[in-house]
Design a protein that fits this description.
Immunoglobulin-like, four-stranded mixed sheet, globular, ET_Amicyanin
Amino acid sequence: MMSLAGLAMFCIGSGAHAGEPASSEGKTVTIDNFTFSPAVLTISAGTKVTWTNRDDIPHTVTDAARPPGFKSAALDTGDMFSWVFPGPGMYHYFCSLHPRMEGTVVVK
């Protein structure tokens, strides 16, 4: 079982690699035209999700839980942020710069 501190080591911002994902299966979310696509992503526990900003302005990926479990820095065009989802649940997230931008990761 991985601790939260250990899990945080898998958090990747702006394309840097801090470690290997818990699962070889990775999923992607594209940020474009003020939208997360897909808006709802269903994955297995231990899967790494990578968001890539294809928009021409900065965006963030911020867990809606309080306190947030994950939060990216502002992502410029082409920047990426990754997070490994440890266990089952619904993880709602948004862009803290544009709060109407929302998405959900469903972990089974």
